[in-house]
Structure formats: C-alpha cells, structure tokens
Amino acid sequence: MTPGVRPFVAGNWKMNGVFASLGEIEAMRRAADAGEAGEAELAVCPPATLLAQAAWKIRGGKLSLGAQDCHPEPSGAFTGDISAPMLKDAGATYVIVGHSERRTLHYETDALVRAKAEAALKAGLTAIVCVGETKEERQAGDAIAVVTRQLKGSLPPGGGPDSVVVSYEPVWAIGTGLTPTPKDVTEMHGAIRTLLGEIYGPGGSKLRILYGGSVKPGNCRDLLTLDNVDGALIGGASLKAAEFLAIAAAYR
Length: 252
Ligand code: PEP
Prior knowledge:
The chain is an alpha/beta fold. It has helices at residues 22-33, 51-58, 84-90, 100-105, 110-122, 135-139, 143-154, 182-200, 220-224, 241-248; strands spanning 8-12, 41-45, 64-67, 94-97, 126-131, 164-168, 208-212, 231-234. It has a single domain (8-15, 27-238), classed as TIM Barrel, CATH 3.20.20.
C-alpha cells in the first residue's frame, strides 16, 4: 500500500460473461455501495457486449466500470474494433490496455499500447496499463529490465494519478495459480514507483500500481498489503461476485 493512495481492485472478465452474468455485477455494486471493500475503489471490466447494460445496472452507485481494450483511433474503417470514445459513451471510466493476452495473442507492441493509452486519456478514460515479464525473462534475471522497457514504451505522456493506473502482471502468474514471492513483488513495485517518478514527476508517487496474476481470497492479504501495491487486477477470481468481494475485503 502507498500512504495517501486509494486502493483499487478491478476485475477483468476477459471473454467471459453473458446477459445472465449481470447479476454478478449487481452484487458487486451492492457491496461497493455498502462499503464492503473499505476505502478501496472497486471496478469490473466485462466484455464490451455487456458494457452498456452494466452501466445501467451500476448507475448512481460506487462500482466503477471498465473495458478491456480500445483502438487508438476515435472512429473509422476498423471492422470489429471499438474506440475509446465509444467505451466512454457506453459508460466506462477505465480501459485496460496492453494486457499480456493482447501483447502475446494480438502481437501488440509497446508503441501500440501507448497509442491506445493516449486515445483513452483523450476520451476521458483512465488507462490501466499492463506490463509483466515471462517466466524465461524472470529466470534470466531480466524481470525489472523488461518491465522498465515496457513502461517506458507504453505509458502515455502527460499521464497522472487520475488518468493512469499501472498493473504489474507477470505473464507466468496469469491464470496459473502461481504467484511471485512477496520479496519479488515488493522489489518490482518499488522499481516501478521509482520509474513513475522519473516519468511523471511528483504525480508518479501517487499513481496506483496494481498487482495481477492468480490473486485469490487465500493469498490476497499477503500480496495487497505490500509496499507500493495499491490494489489488484483480478481475472478468474472476478467472475463470481463472492470470490471477487472476498479479495476486496482485504481492504476492510
Ligand atoms: C488477468 O488476466 O489480468 C489476471 C490477473 O488473471 P488471473 O487473476 O486469472 O491470473
């Protein structure tokens, strides 16, 4: 945790969720409104098909809404893509960019991730910029160098605590049940904090740095209380409100 920084717990539903899943979002909203996550802000990032309906369900409440990706252009001939202004229009306030599944499966480069983050800021969205090393990179002792390079290439110029969130997600920890040691997380988040200061100046000390990768109710307290860990991005464990809220309760 970082003194003076409001924790943030966000769920990334990936390509999961249909109309019937909106009940989970309603349950999250009730918990957010009831303060079940203490001071922490809660957000859910469902697939784009559910954004507008989810926005309707959470209107006037304390649960925030995010999308999972955006195109760098605001509009145009890009069949199948969705722009940042469209996400904003649908009711999102956050958008994830540079998730490792997009970097790997869609060959997204740091430059493209930065263009998406810039588009997000221009549309008035907060960009959740994801970075993280592979297993091979960690084993080679390159984890901090890789994440530093990704951040230097992916972070949008002019960002600050209200417009950018960083999520450190080791690729090898996503969906595997594996997590880095508390020492490794503390070391990485400390390095990210230092870099954010170099890039954004004083605002960098207040940017939220999330940890993501196999966060579960059983390990959340150990991870979320570490220095410079200001919350979590949660995949699989965010699909059911009960599990997601059990993690968020770490901040109660
Ligand atoms: C993610 O995909 O952002 C993630 C952290 O997934 P999981 O929690 O399932 O490891």
